[in-house]
Amino acid sequence: xxxxxxxxxxxxxxxxxxxxxxxxxxxxxxxxxxxxxxxxxxxxxxxxxxxxxxxxxxxx
Length: 60
Known about the structure:
- This protein is of the alpha+beta class.
- The chain contains one helix and two strands, in the order E-E-H.
- The chain has one helix at residues 48-59; strands at 11-15, 18-22.
- The mean pLDDT is 74.
């Protein structure tokens, strides 16, 4: 992650018998965009620039 983007450390959540690891980055006051990695994917595969591009496309 870029040093100039606010970022939370990874956290764990349990729901319906599964354990999910999540983190967030960006402006906490801005609208949220949920990105879900596919089967056997790791969240480290998301690059900040890729996620930011997805957000720009979603709000355009």
